C-alpha cells in the first residue's frame, strides 16, 4: 500500500509521513516495516511521493505493482540498536526516523530544530502578501509540476543574489476567472495590476520594506518588449499619463511590463515577480487555517459583500477575499483605505505563519506549499522549486518587527478625482531610503548615523553663495536628459548660474560624484547641500584650481530626478502612512 493509501487506512494525514530532520532542516519521508509488510526507503522505486497526484513525475512515481507500507508516527521511533540515542529519539514525536546508534550524530536541542523549521518556512512570510504570496517550499519535485512561469523579457536583474538587496514585486490581479468569482465586478477583466507590493529586503537581511503602489496612480508606462502566450514577440509602445494598473493586461502587457514601470517609478531594479488572482487569495488563506483580523467598527460593504460586526474575526476563503477588497466601509472609502487594511491583514498573516502552530506542522506546510505553487504565476528565473526555496531562505532571517508596510506618497489628482498623482515632496525620499537600504523601523539608529555624517570633515566649514558656485555637469550613466534637467534645476531653482551642460561624460561612474580642488571646498559644500550629496560623493584633488575653473559634477545611475536628494534621508517623511508587521491594528 502506498503512502496515500496507508495514511487513509490508519487515519493518518499523508503529510504527517514527512518528519523534520533537525540536523539538516529538511522534511523527509520515513518508511519502516509495519504489520509484517516490507518497506522501501524514501527515494527508491518502492516509495510514492505523498500528497495529491496532480502531476506525477516519472522519477517520483513507483512502478506499477510496487507499494511501500508507511507506519503511523506513533511507531518505529526507537533506534535499532536500542541504545540511549534511540531512546532519546523515541521521545520526540515527529522527529527523525530510527537509525543505528553507532556513529550517528547526536540530535540537536528543540530550539535548534525550531530555528531550522523557520529557515525552511521563511518564504511564507515574504511572499504571502495581499493573500497573493507564496509559501515556504519543500524541495520535492512534486511541486515543480504546479508552477506556472512567464518571461521577464529582460526587465529584471536576472535573479536575486546573496550579496545584494532583494526586490520582489507581488501583483494581485482583478481577473475574475475561476469558480465563484463571476459576481465580483467586471467579469471580462483581462487582469490588471490591481494590488501591487514591492517587497524590498536589505542587503544584510536585517530589515524589509513592503511598498504598496496604488492602482490609480497616474504614471508613465515605458516601452515594453513582450513575449506573448503564443510565443510571438511584440514591442508595446510607451504611454504617458496612464493609471499604474494598466501596466498589466492592457494592450497585451505582461508582468514584465509592470516590472519596468516599477523601476521607472522608483529607481529600484526588480529581481522577481509573483502574480495571483482571486482564487489564490481564497486557497492560501484557507490553507493557513484563516487569518485573524480586528475591526474597530461594524462593516457592511455592498461592493465587496463583506458584512461583519465590530471585534475580532478569523477569515479565510471568500470572506478573506471580501475583506481584502473592502474599501467603501473603511477609512475614507478610497483605494488608499483598502491598501491600509490589506497591510494590516498581511501583518497578521505574517505573525500567524511565524507561530509554532504553523512552523511545526508538516500537514500545514504541505497544504501551504501545494496551494501556493498551484495558485501563483512566477517569473521564469524562479520557475523551479529549488530556486524558490533558496529565495525563501534568503528572506527568512527578516524579523517581523523589522518589516514595515508603507504606501507610495500620493496626492489627489486635481484633474481627475478618481485618480492620484505622485507627491513629489515625499515620494522621492521613500524611494531613496529603499534604494540605500535605510530601515523604516530603525529611525533612532539612522538619526545617530546622520548626526555623525554631519561631522564629516569633508562637509565642515563655510559654504559659498549659490551665485559663486561654478560647475560643469556631465551625464555618466544617469537617465538620458539628466544633465540638462539638473542644469535647469540648478539655474532656475537654486541660482547656480555659472553652470554648464557638458553632455555625456568620457566614461560612466557607479554613483554621482563631484570633483573639486582644495580652494573650491566652499563651493563643493554648497552644491553638496543643494543636491543632497553624501561625503563619499565628494572627490577633492590635490592642487588648487584657477579662478575661472569649474568643478566637475558627473551624474551616475543613482540620479533619478533633479531636486531629489542623492544621499538617502535618515528619517522617513513626516505623516507617511505605515504599518509595522509585528503590531496588531484594528481596521477603522
Q: Look at the helices and sheets and give the structural class.
A: alpha/beta
Order of neighbouring strands in the sheet with most strands: 3-16-11-4-5-6-17-25
Number of contiguous helices:
14
Describe the biggest sheet?
A: 8 strands, mixed
Amount of helix: 25-40%
The overall pLDDT average reads 75
Count of individual beta strands: 25
Binned strand content: 15-25%
Apparent shape: elongated
Radius of gyration: 28 Å
Distance between the termini: 54 Å
* Low-confidence sequence ranges: 1-17, 31-139
Sum up the structure in keywords.
single chain, 588 residues, alpha/beta, eight-stranded mixed beta sheet, five-stranded mixed beta sheet, elongated, disordered N terminus
Question: How would you sum up this structure, described in words?
Answer:
The protein has 14 helices and 25 strands. It has 588 residues and is of the alpha/beta class. The strands form 8 sheets. The protein has an 8-stranded mixed beta sheet, sandwiched between helices. A 5-stranded mixed beta sheet has the order 21-20-24-22-23, covered by helices on one side. Strands 1-2 form a two-stranded antiparallel sheet. α5 packs across α6 and α5 (278-287) runs antiparallel to α9 (362-375).
Amino acid at each position: 500500500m502506498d503512502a496515500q493509501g496507508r495514511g487513509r487506512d490508519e487515519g493518518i494525514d499523508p503529510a504527517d509521513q514527512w518528519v523534520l530532520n533537525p540536523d539538516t532542516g529538511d522534511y523527509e519521508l520515513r518508511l519502516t516495516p509495519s504489520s509484517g509488510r516490507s518497506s522501501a526507503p524514501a527515494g527508491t522505486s518502492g516509495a510514492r511521493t505523498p500528497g495529491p497526484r496532480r502531476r506525477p513525475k516519472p522519477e517520483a512515481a513507483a512502478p506499477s505493482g510496487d507499494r511501500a507500507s508507511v507506519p503511523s508516527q506513533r511507531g518505529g521511533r526507537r533506534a535499532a540498536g536500542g541504545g540511549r540515542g534511540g531512546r532519546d529519539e523515541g521521545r520526540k514525536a515527529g522527529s527523525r526516523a530510527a537509525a543505528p546508534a553507532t556513529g550517528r550524530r547526536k540530535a540537536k536541542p528543540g530550539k535548534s530544530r525550531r530555528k531550522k523549521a523557520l529557515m525552511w518556512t521563511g518564504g511564507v512570510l515574504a511572499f504571502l502578501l495581499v493573500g497573493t504570496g507564496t509559501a515556504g517550499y519543500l524541495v520535492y519535485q512534486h511541486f515543480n509540476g504546479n508552477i506556472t512561469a512567464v518571461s521577464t523579457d529582460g526587465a529584471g536583474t536576472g535573479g536575486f543574489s546573496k550579496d545584494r538587496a532583494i526586490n520582489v514585486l507581488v501583483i494581485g490581479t482583478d481577473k475574475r476567472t475561476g469558480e465563484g468569482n463571476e459576481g465580483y465586478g467586471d467579469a471580462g477583466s483581462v487582469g490588471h495590476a490591481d494590488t501591487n507590493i514591492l517587497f524590498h529586503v536589505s542587503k544584510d537581511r536585517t530589515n524589509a520594506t513592503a511598498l504598496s503602489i496604488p492602482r490609480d496612480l497616474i504614471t508613465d508606462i515605458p516601452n515594453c518588449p513582450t513575449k506573448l502566450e503564443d510565443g510571438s514577440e511584440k514591442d508595446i509602445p510607451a504611454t504617458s499619463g496612464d493609471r499604474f494598473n494598466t501596466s498589466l493586461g492592457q494592450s497585451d502587457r505582461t508582468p514584465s511590463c509592470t516590472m519596468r514601470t516599477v523601476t521607472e517609478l522608483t529607481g529600484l531594479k526588480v529581481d522577481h515577480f509573483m502574480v495571483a488572482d482571486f482564487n489564490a487569495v481564497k486557497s492560501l488563506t484557507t490553507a493557513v487555517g484563516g487569518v485573524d483580523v480586528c475591526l474597530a467598527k461594524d462593516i457592511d460593504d455592498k461592493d465587496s459583500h463583506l458584512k461583519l460586526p465590530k471585534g475580532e474575526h478569523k477569515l479565510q476563503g471568500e470572506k478573506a477575499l471580501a475583506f481584502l477588497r473592502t474599501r467603501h466601509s473603511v477609512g475614507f472609502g478610497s483605494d488608499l483605505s483598502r491598501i491600509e487594511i490589506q497591510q494590516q491583514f498581511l501583518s497578521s498573516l505574517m505573525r500567524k505563519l511565524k507561530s509554532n502552530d504553523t512552523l511545526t506542522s508538516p500537514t500545514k506546510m504541505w497544504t501551504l506549499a501545494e496551494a501556493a505553487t498551484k495558485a501563483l504565476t512566477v517569473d521564469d528565473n524562479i520557475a523551479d522549486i529549488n530556486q524558490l526555496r533558496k529565495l525563501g531562505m534568503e528572506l527568512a532571517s527578516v524579523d517581523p518587527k523589522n518589516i514595515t508596510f508603507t504606501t507610495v506618497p500620493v496626492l489627489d489628482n486635481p484633474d481627475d478625482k478618481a485618480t492620484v498623482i505622485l507627491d513629489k515632496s515625499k515620494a522621492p525620499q521613500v524611494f531613496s531610503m529603499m534604494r540605500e537600504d535605510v530601515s523604516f523601523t530603525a529611525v533612532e539608529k539612522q538619526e545617530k548615523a546622520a548626526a555623525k555624517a554631519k561631522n564629516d570633515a569633508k562637509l565642515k566649514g563655510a559654504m559659498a553663495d549659490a551665485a559663486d558656485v561654478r560647475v560643469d555637469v556631465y551625464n555618466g550613466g544617469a537617465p538620458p536628459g539628466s544633465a540638462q534637467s539638473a542644469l535647469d534645476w540648478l539655474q532656475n531653482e537654486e541660482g547656480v548660474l555659472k553652470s554648464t551642460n557638458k553632455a555625456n561624460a568620457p566614461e560612466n561612474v557607479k554613483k554621482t560624484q563631484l570633483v573639486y580642488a582644495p580652494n573650491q571646498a566652499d563651493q563643493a559644500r554648497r552644491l553638496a547641500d543643494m543636491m543632497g550629496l553624501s561625503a563619499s560623493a565628494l572627490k577633492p584633488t590635490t592642487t588648487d584650481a584657477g579662478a575661472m575653473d569649474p568643478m566637475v559634477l558627473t551624474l551616475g545611475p543613482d540620479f533619478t530626478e533633479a531636486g531629489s536628494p542623492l544621499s538617502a534621508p535618515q528619517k522617513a517623511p513626516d505623516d507617511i502612512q505605515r504599518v509595522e508587521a509585528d503590531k496588531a491594528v484594528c481596521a477603522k
